[in-house]
Amino acid sequence: MNTKENTDQDQIVSHFHEKYGVREDIPQDLKETKDYRQTEKIFSLREHVTFLNSLSPEDQLWRRIGAQIKPPVLFRYWMRYAAIIVLSFSLGSVFIYFSGVHIHETAMASVSSPRGQITSLKLFDGSTVWLNSESTIQYSSDFNSGNREVYVEGEAYFEVTHSEEKPFIVHLENSAIKVHGTSFNVKAYPGCDRVEAVLMEGKIEFTANKRSVVMEPHERVVFSLRKGTIVKDQIDIEKTLAWKKGKYYYSNEKLSTIIGQLQRWYDIEFVFNENDLSLYTFTGVINHEKSIEYNLQLIELTNKINVEFKNEKIIITGK
Amino acid sequence: MKLVEKKYQLSFREFENFFRENFQAASLVAFRYLADRSLVEDIVQESFVILWEKQSQIFTNKEDLRKYLFVTVRNRTISYLRSIRFKQVDIETYLSEADLTDQEKLYDDEELAVRILKATQKLPARCREIFMLAYMENLTYNHIAERLSISKNTVKTQMVIAYRVLREELRELYLGLLFLFSVPRLNSRIKKI
After folding, report:
1. Which residues of B touch A65 (CB under 8 A)?
2. CATH 3.40.50.1220: does it fit domain A246-318?
3. Partner residue opposite B12 with nearest CB, options A37, A41, A72
4. For residue range A37-82, what is the model confidence (pLDDT) as tens digits?
5. Which fold has domain A62-240?
6. Which three-class secondary structure state does DSSP give residue A108?
7. pLDDT score of A98
8. Any CB–CB contact under 8 A between B72 and chain A?
């Protein structure tokens, strides 16, 4: 960048910011440049931009709207069959199967998010749950009247309605979380060897192996099922919740974990040709909006593996 | 309008994306008449809810939906102002401006402002901090230098960089609106309340 250009641009920018556009202090030839007109335009919109910058966070605004409009299709089906569900509670042993909604004979209601889908639902106490693909939430027929306890397999994000007298309890594999009113994310996929909880707002108590850990916002707790250890650290909550928007951030994550997520999102089976390939690590973003080919190409580029589509399966081999 | 055209209906998730793409421009449409942030947020919120309920009956494409969103926001803002007995005369002035036939042109400033805010997120942290103090808080270069304990020259340099980045970002992102940059607009904006 040459000096003349910098001086000119400084003159233009200073003209607006230092002199507030008093016309006389700038040479006519500079005024006729594109840089001048563009700077003038940007400067003229500062009231607009300042106003935009003052708006509440996007997610917060969307939550307010999302809460008022009709929930997603899966949930609407669920509402339509609510009557049948109530009936089956009283009969006690009826088994109903519809759109991922199961009712077991133990009078537990269960909602699952199938492969390739993200589902959200509202519980009777007003709490909202987002279920990632292949995740299930169960709760008993007396939810909210007798208790606020749910059972989760897979990954879920909760926004819990506040209630002092009735704590909300989330049961996970060999562990549980007790809350009053807050929002947090849990991840406990079967066969995964670990349970993860991330707190966004409020305060929660994570319990496993008869030990309790109180969590503050932006903290994550990882409970290792095999070792029995509970580790707490700080984490970027935006990245944790990215799955709600169809994105996953990984940093040095094992290929097997990532493939597990791809399998859940795209409903396709993967085969590792050599076992130790699954231990390779990957850092990056997986985006559900993009094709599976696109996401795999990214992994292929960084990890020296080959990917091949065969008989509706994806075969992964070393290079 | 063709009657047989397929209706355009967004899923819950698509509607969320539609919200994320358009709520800022919609807020600015209300901001033309109303400077109160929380009132504007309420009006925009109501408008999106109305739009969700009506979308299956009316629209054939996303552009329609966008236009209807802006018109809804505008109308609701005006009826709010009427409800608090705002001076009728001014409202009619707003209305006549809003009834301009060239709908596209009508929202250019709003769109551009949204892009500018997005583009500021691409600035390096220190550069953004300096730019925001000048641009949003109207601080002079001397004030900024003092507040951040840096030289006035650093402020100048960073401001030049900031504007250069913004102009480039807007050029890249908005080729379609380039005419905006090359021809000064004739009609001045109507004064806000």
Report:
1. 19, 45, 48-49, 52
2. no
3. A72
4. 888 889 989 899 999 999 988 888 888 888 788 554 444 443 433 3
5. Jelly Rolls (2.60.120)
6. strand
7. 34
8. no
